[in-house]
């Protein structure tokens, strides 16, 4: 039988990545968009359908004949979350009832409050202190109560070549520009959990491939990249930019606070500040038991690809790993050659 999926949010980071992995695994993939002629790309392999995730009938019609609905749609720019997120989920659930499909929901750490920190398992209490966290909890509650087959996969902050709105692009670097400065939103010494989108999508599809071995309501968490002291991600960005000596500066939380009443994105960023003030780490023990391992791209590779996808590095930028950086810094120079010449030779050989 043909495997057919409907992806809601295929133009977004996680929706697009999941769609690509599904296609590579032999699925037919439908994608719903209000203006498909504007977003469809030649050769992308998707069957684009015209419709709106806010319209019940559009979603139900698009779901005919599918076995999977990927609910990766979010209001653009964080606008009107309270008014839009839950109605869109209700439409997805109605479509799943009509088609018999399983729902795949990309989850987040926002569900948890400080009482669940530091090491969080899938059944940890969900008592968030934020508005967005409360909506996330309600989304999962409705899915659990629906009686539908559901797969929820929670992960840390996304980054990747096509990640869309995320902390990496909004807080650490400036997309479309060479890396000349790095900001670090974390408090000194506080760890942070990151999730590379291609790894997240691969993990989700591997879980789906478990088929009937998946519980009716299956919930898993991804380890991703754990930045133990809050400085490893910034160091990887500096290495990717070929400037390993570059140090991260403090993120301008004061500016976010001032602009929050007037700028929606800043308001949402400020609400999530608590995740940067204390270490928050979700356990992947249950995932490893199910799959045996977790797909994991090395940090330096993932960061380089992310910066290339965001226009911060050229496509042919070389890979700089910690070992390569250490080897170059330890490389002796000729005592008879001027320092500038030696440095130039080193750069030319990179």
UniProtKB/TrEMBL annotation:
TM ranges: none
Positions with biased composition (Low complexity): 327-350
Region feature (Disordered): 312-350
Domain (NAD(P)-binding) ranges: 9-161
A Pfam cross-reference name: NAD_binding_10
Protein name (database record): NAD(P)H-binding protein
